[in-house]
Design brief:
Length: about 425
């Protein structure tokens, strides 16, 4: 990007930011970085500009970059939930694309700052992750890359099984009414007799990172919908010529088009916010963006009119074909809520760290209508065994029956 292009982008950022502020957006101080595709996709794969190295991140980078090189997909921007808020723009973006992105990330920054789910976020996590990466490098030097990678593999296999309410002050080790300790990572880090101190530290660091990422997982529809609502609104306030208007329309249509076989969170989110504004006014949607997450957003506001307007429906396979099974809002809403509950992950908790009086680990899946993926269980229990050091058991429900998977370090059994 040449000096004149930077100057034009700077003026555009100033103009859009001023309009956003006048319309009531309350965002963190913004820092914009223009990056080549390699840098942008590296950040996208790792999740942050500075983070520990792991083969899964490299795999994600290769896939994302390959799709970009072949024109199959493109990341236009990345934005970091921090204070100040960092936004990374692709250096090949046109000026109009960057205008859209600036408007979009201002919506994200407003959401990060004001949504209740983000209220306990560690806004300095960008620096902490860099510190974590330094610790991992130290462990690799002291204990060897292979053993550190194996510990990371195991930790990442269970990273979603934390208690996200801990960020609001819930005590570690808090047990639910049915005796489940939702924070499996914390339970193992605290109670495993096998782990070395540095391995416990790995688990605690992975847990801290997941606590940071969790609000983004439980507000995906709202967050993207809010950012899309504002990039659309702010762009309409700009004085665009005919060619810019056409380019904006093409990019906007590509981002907001309905998805096949699932939902596009950008599309569903913006359509719901637009309809709620039409019914109740802009002040109402500001309040909604402050207080709710995806589950409450869908439960409280997705009604039959919205379902029909977005042409949402359920489908199932009958023989060789898929057929629509329901267009009723209650059923569509229930399925979407089930997919968004607990960040979209199964609810699994620790039940006993001395199962059978032999120091074995017993986990239980809280069945809520969705059975566990058997392959996922078979791949995950060996990782748990590495962390616990003794047989690991997982109770779940399959076809109405209670089954227990067991891995003893050698073979998988089902009882």
């Amino acid at each position: 990007m040449h000096a004149k292009e930077y100057e034009r982008l700077s003026r555009s950022i100033e103009e859009i930011t001023g309009i956003a502020k006048s319309m009531g957006l309350d965002y963190f101080p913004m820092r914009y970085e223009v990056c080549p595709a390699e840098v942008l996709y590296s950040i996208g794969a790792y999740g942050m500009p500075a983070r520990f190295a792991h083969w899964s991140f490299g795999k994600a980078y290769h896939r994302m970059k390959l799709e970009y090189d072949y024109g199959l997909s493109k990341i236009y921007e990345l934005v970091i939930n921090s204070n100040p808020c960092y936004a990374f723009l692709l250096d090949h973006n046109s000026l109009i694309q960057n205008k859209i992105i600036v408007a979009h990330v201002l919506g994200h920054s407003d959401f990060f700052k004001n949504n209740a789910m983000f209220s306990a976020t560690d806004r300095s996590m960008l620096d902490r992750m860099s510190t974590f990466a330094d610790r991992f490098h130290l462990f690799e030097h002291e204990f060897g890359e292979k053993v550190v990678e194996e510990t990371l593999d195991a930790a990442l296999a269970i990273q979603e099984h934390i208690d996200p309410h801990h960020r609001f002050g819930r005590m570690q080790g808090f047990a639910e009414a049915d005796g489940l300790m939702k924070d499996v990572v914390s339970f193992i880090a605290t109670n495993s007799r096998k782990l070395a101190d540095w391995q416990r530290e790995v688990l605690w660091m992975i847990r801290e990172e997941m606590l940071y990422f969790w609000p983004q997982m439980e507000t995906k529809i709202m967050n993207e919908g809010w950012a899309s609502y504002w990039h659309t609104t702010l762009m309409h306030e700009l004085d665009l010529d005919e060619s810019d208007t056409i380019e904006f329309a093409k990019m906007n249509a590509a981002v907001l088009q309905p998805a096949r076989g699932g939902i596009n969170p950008y599309y569903v989110g913006i359509k719901m916010f637009e309809e709620l504004e039409r019914r109740h006014g802009r002040d109402a949607i500001f309040e909604i963006r402050e207080m709710e997450n995806d589950v409450s957003f869908l439960r409280n506001h997705l009604d039959q009119g919205m379902v029909e307007a977005m042409d949402l429906f359920l489908f199932q396979r009958e023989g060789e074909y898929y057929k629509v099974s329901s267009k009723q809002a209650a059923q569509v809403r229930d399925l979407l809520i089930a997919q968004r509950t607990n960040g979209g992950f199964p609810y699994i908790g620790a039940l006993d760290g001395d199962y059978r009086g032999r120091g074995e680990l017993l986990l239980r899946h809280r069945f809520e209508g969705m059975e566990l993926d058997r392959k996922y269980v078979q791949m995950t229990l060996p990782h748990l065994y590495k962390l616990w050091g003794k047989p690991v058991h997982l109770q779940t429900q399959v076809n109405g029956r209670i089954l227990t998977y067991e891995f003893d370090g050698k073979e998988m059994k089902v009882a």
